[in-house]
Design brief:
The protein has two domains: 94 residues, no CATH class; 189 residues, Rossmann fold (3-Layer(aba) Sandwich), CATH 3.40.50. Helix content is 41%, strand content 13%. A nine-stranded mixed sheet has the order 1-2-6-5-4-3-7-8-9, with helices on both faces. It is elongated, with a radius of gyration of 21 Å. The protein starts with 8 loop residues before the first helix and ends in an 11-residue tail after the last strand.
Length: 327
């Protein structure tokens, strides 16, 4: 971060937002453009300055394709469209009393940024899949992400037992100094958020939709309470975006990255919590699963059983939930 200290973060963040809106620019290319080119005083909305920058970057790319990005492949109309998207995005964020940061910003969550050299399966580096832009609403600062955090996840249609455990575990986590992370979905994740708020803790809700478009709508009031109580809404989907299966999958990795511990309350074999647990395990996070034997005959906890039998997870029950925070 030392080489970025003299840069106006507002303008630098806007440049990264522009590259994201432009599309087709890889994480590596964005990193090189920010690192290797002077951006002090750079304003992406100054078209003369922007055109000059793209020409210089393209020239550098012709000398060494590893050093920059070839903007000559981009039509002028595409640049115009990306700039308009940037402006609309910033206007929508302002209207929603929200903001954004980039992975080069000091307030970008360190658990995500500082894991950039972690090698994932297949030789892929984590820095290649980390979000370039995060949109947020609420209290967002470096202190927020310096505390320990715990994700509480699970099925939208969960048993009362799972919800009860979720509220208790969340309250325990808050008493141990943890922030609570969830996806703002009904069922298990709502139980985690509710337990956090009741215990006076700070919650982070990671959305799979735009920061101004809480999905499902019935959780909008919970989102407002999270923000009002010093918590945070976080998303990598730009404002106005609706929830999709693909955005859910992308959201899952952020929940896993932000967390020190991931707690799965109840999940079917194909539940989103399974994806979060696997990502957390791949990222080297501690994963805990509510004991599948503690559920009733009519409760679908097949995912819990799958995780216990095939993954390096720790199981727990309502009675011994305190063991999660004993280490």
């Amino acid at each position: 971060m030392a080489e970025l200290k003299k840069i106006s973060y507002g303008k630098m963040n806007r440049f990264v937002l522009f590259l994201k809106m432009l599309g087709g620019v890889s994480n590596n290319a964005i990193g090189r453009l920010v690192r290797d080119f002077p951006l002090d005083g750079f304003d992406v909305y100054d078209r003369v300055v922007l055109d000059s920058f793209m020409e210089k970057a393209t020239e550098a790319n012709r000398r060494d394709r590893r050093e920059a990005f070839d903007f000559s492949r981009i039509e002028r109309s595409q640049v115009d469209e990306a700039l308009e998207k940037c402006k609309r995005c910033e206007e929508m964020l302002k209207a929603a009393n929200a903001g954004y940061c980039t992975r080069f910003d000091d307030i970008y969550p360190w658990r995500v940024r500082d894991s950039k050299y972690l090698c994932l399966s297949g030789g892929k580096m984590l820095k290649d899949v980390m979000p370039n832009v995060l949109y947020f609403k609420g209290k967002f600062d470096t202190m927020f992400f310096s505390v320990k955090s715990c994700a509480i996840v699970g099925a939208k249609q969960c048993s009362e037992y799972a919800a009860q455990v979720g509220r208790k575990v969340s309250s325990l986590a808050v008493s141990k100094g943890y922030a609570i992370i969830g996806g703002l979905m009904p069922g298990c994740e709502t139980a985690g958020h509710e337990g956090c708020l009741q215990a006076g803790g700070r919650a982070i809700a990671v959305l799979a939709s735009g920061i101004d478009n809480v999905c499902p709508p019935q959780d909008a009031s919970l989102a407002e309470r999270i923000v009002a109580n010093g918590g945070l809404l976080l998303s990598e989907q730009r404002p106005g975006t609706s929830l999709t299966p693909f955005s859910l999958t992308k959201r899952n990795r952020i929940q896993a990255l932000l967390s020190d511990k991931v707690i799965v309350l109840q999940s079917s074999i194909k539940g989103e919590a399974m994806n979060i647990a696997r990502s957390a395990h791949e990222f080297g996070k501690q994963v805990y699963v509510l004991d599948p034997k503690a559920f009733g005959a009519g409760d679908d906890a097949a995912g819990n059983a799958e995780l216990v039998s095939k993954s390096a997870v720790r199981k727990f029950t309502l009675d011994d939930a305190s063991c999660i925070f004993a280490e």
